[in-house]
């Protein structure tokens, strides 16, 4: 996905696709298009069919098809923000106020030993945050005209603002990947609004708050889903002693930002923001299904190495997205499995 290709696509003054009635474009045919044409076609369809009349169209079957086809890069920030919504009614001006509050707190902690003692947990958390940021940035391949240092600075500010707003939740390294992903496609104020609203209604909070019992429950539930959807692979994993916590925890904590190539992770996020947490489990099952034949031939160490090095693999994006759709997990099914596992 070349940056120059994207720019050339954006500079087109006229487009073949804009001359078509968007509804006539078969989403399946878009997969066959070169990158620039695909982006241009999707942009025209999203603008004409979804973003115009958002409230009545974004949950339609046509919109669902378009999320699976991929949100065009130039509209991704806007679409993600609108998909997540702002149920918390966060004013963008709140971001600047919270960033300033965090700056003031750090200064007070540095100058006043008594204040630092009272806020030592916050100070320690902020310190850990700033240590983690540069370690996280190498995982990000830039898709836009933003320098890594700029995203790094904004990640720190977004997460500091979140800490000021939600000290009850605190900080987890996985949050770095989520906030970084938002910052690739939108400004820091919008990223803060989207990040905060997403976490407020996400199961990921159970992972970020180190709720060991709940995390174990999710791992057991996923093992149950693997046994249902991929019984041969489940049996192989049981024989080898491969447990979901050995790979799935890393996948979920970063919502796949850390483990998949960034362009593919972005496609996964198109589905994540529109369908919610359930899609994260569907993605895991689809990945395992795509690797099943290979994994069945591997020993314990090789299985874990394969599952931890997905970024190094050449993966067919459209094939994986089709696999995710085929898995078809529902929120109710996830809740049923979680309930069943909790009663064991």
Automatic annotation (TrEMBL):
Q: Specify the Rab-GAP TBC domain's residue ranges.
A: 70-276
InterPro entries noted in UniProt: Rab-GAP-TBC_dom, Rab-GAP_TBC_sf, Rab_GAP_TBC_domain
**Record's GO cellular component terms:** cytoplasmic vesicle; vacuole
- As given in the record, the signal peptide range reads none
GO BP annotations, alphabetical order: vesicle-mediated transport
Quote one Gene Ontology molecular function term. small GTPase binding
Gene3D superfamilies the record matches: putative rabgap domain of human tbc1 domain family member 14 like domains, Ypt/Rab-GAP domain of gyp1p, domain 1, Ypt/Rab-GAP domain of gyp1p, domain 3
Among Pfam families, the record links this protein to: RabGAP-TBC (PF00566)
Task: Tell me what this protein is called.
Answer: Rab-GAP TBC domain-containing protein
Q: Which organism is it from?
A: Rhodosorus marinus
